[in-house]
Amino acid sequence: MNVESALWRAIAVFRGVSLCYAAVLIVRNDAGYARPWAAWPVLVVMVLWTAFTIHAYRLAAWRGDERRRRALAVADLVIPALCLLATGFVEYQANLFEGRANLTVSWVAAPVMVWALMGGVRGGLVAATVLAVPDLALRGLYADHVSASTVNGIVLLYMVGAVIGYMARLALDSEARLARAIAVETATRERERLARDIHDSVLQVLALVQRRGGEAGGEAAELGRLAGEQEAALRTLIGAPRPEEISGSGDTDLRALLTAHTGARIQVSAPATPVTLPGPAAREVAAAVSAALDNVERHCPPETSVWILLEDDGDRVTVSVRDDGPGIPEGRMAEAVSSGRLGLDQSIRGRVRDLGGTVEITTAPGAGTDLELTIPRPRRS
Questions:
Q1: Tell me: the pLDDT tens digits for 97-118?
Q2: DSSP of 249-312, one letter per residue?
Q3: Is residue 214 in some structural domain?
């Protein structure tokens, strides 16, 4: 049973116990009512509504019908409010003036708990207000002032809404974080198991092909080089955390996206701690880096090496992509834009610009190319 189910069960128990308390007071005060016969239909309504809501909320939760549960919550405010107002017909004016308990007493706190569970502190306070207004209006019909007992009851109603709302949200958030931690641990264990299996088979074969290909030379050497690249990429893949495993807040660890490019000719350096960005922003940065690597693949010799450096400066994230290729000849970038080849301008600069960042390109013939992508980290509200 999860936390939410336990809370719903606790509300159902409270509803039943508070109904019994209200019934005891009605029986005890029966002779002191102005219209004692009218108190019993109210009690019947309270009994029937208690039984109905306990079953209806459980059924709505089982079906996952949130719309039905919201409709029940609205009705759960209306029915107790009407039962509360019925006190004005049953009770003597003098008793109301003195602050005598209404027919529902603490039974009306159950709907406040429901709204607090569903809507947090705000929902609990709204429900408390909806039920406090009829009580104040009822007693205001017969008195020039509100008794201390009435004020205490209303204050307790607000406290129930605020405390239950806060604790419910805290408990549900804690349960969600625990579930994410368990999922991460489970995924990590599975990845470690796969890593052991792959290491005992695929990685060893790729390493053997790389070594033997290098010894044989010729076309076999090229095959060995490709096997080495795949071995490095596979080791990174099975060892790196998935982006969605890092945070449950909607952020993505940029390290996991960039280290996927690691290979025989591509080295990635990143901090030991997560470098998080909002998911869409992280994916756009990763796409810009992929576009830069594609440019290296198309325009540089096959033996060109690439270094990717990820830095976290707190309020901004910087990614540098540097290669030791022939560099970009002067005027080539302007020529590419004018001829409609927009890879650098749109795939890299455009993406980073949309994120509010900048791209600096340092290049010279024979000295390689260095792209520095700087992306500001969005401020948390």
A1: 777 788 898 999 999 999 999 9
A2: SSEEEHHHHHGGG--SSEEEE--SS--EEEHHHHHHHHHHHHHHHHHHHHHS-TT--EEEEEEE
A3: no
